[in-house]
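Human: Here is a favour to ask of a fellow structure person. Comparing notes only helps if you start from a blank page. I am asking you to supply a protein in sequence and structure-token form. Write it directly below this note and I will take it from there.

Assistant:
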Amino acid sequence: MSASEDPRWPDLAKASEALRSGDGSGVKVAVIDSGVDPTHPALHGMELQDDIVISCDGVNLHIGENQGTDVYGHGTAVASLISNEAPAAIFGSFRALDSTNQARSFVIAECVSQAIARGYQVINCSFGCRGLARYVMDYKEWVDEAFLAGVQVVAACSNVNSSIREWPAYFPSVISVQGIDCQPEELFSKRGEMVSFFARGERVEVPWLDGEMKTETGSSYAAPLVTGRIARLLSAFPEMEPSLIKPLLSILASAR
């Protein structure tokens, strides 16, 4: 078998076509967020393969059924943006964020572990924690777990400046994204920086609570666009070597 025929190493032209026109069929995408409301009209009856909430009583973690609840609106927005890019993907909602859009690091870690154990291939993390040293290991453990399992983690960087360290975006194995003012179909990369991908994150119309729509700005809304495109690639090349996704995406994106 030649290198060009090896399913682990996709042809660039075919990968470029998949990135433009794929639908994410069969790829499992986990949304770690505030929950997803699949009844919102903008989600067009999205079915969630898993819909769980992780909570803590102060001592123990508990896994429960979330039952289509979004306590803030952010998760529904994120799920909609991913679905627009990869409508045939398989979605799971893992609620970690609360009604103030905050989450404990160990709750996030359990959500990610649950997603990995349930076979999700891409994990969207439209959140971040400022890079104080005491927080790093809370994130590194599950980022490493995902890397070893061949799971792609996509994370939003700081809304203020991409040079500000935030976790998980600042780990090298994470596909980190900054929101910029560009067209929805555009994707940019810039080598030599910890945050190396750029997608539309300004003035994005998204679904929110109670069936309403909002116009939002932030890297939170750029990361899902990249998540959806990764689902497109994985759908077209299910046997692709997982470590190739980030450099392949960098090659296929426009230089910035």
Q: What stands out?
A: The chain has one domain: 11-255. The radius of gyration is 17 Å. The longest strand covers residues 48-56. DSSP finds six helices and 14 strands in the chain.
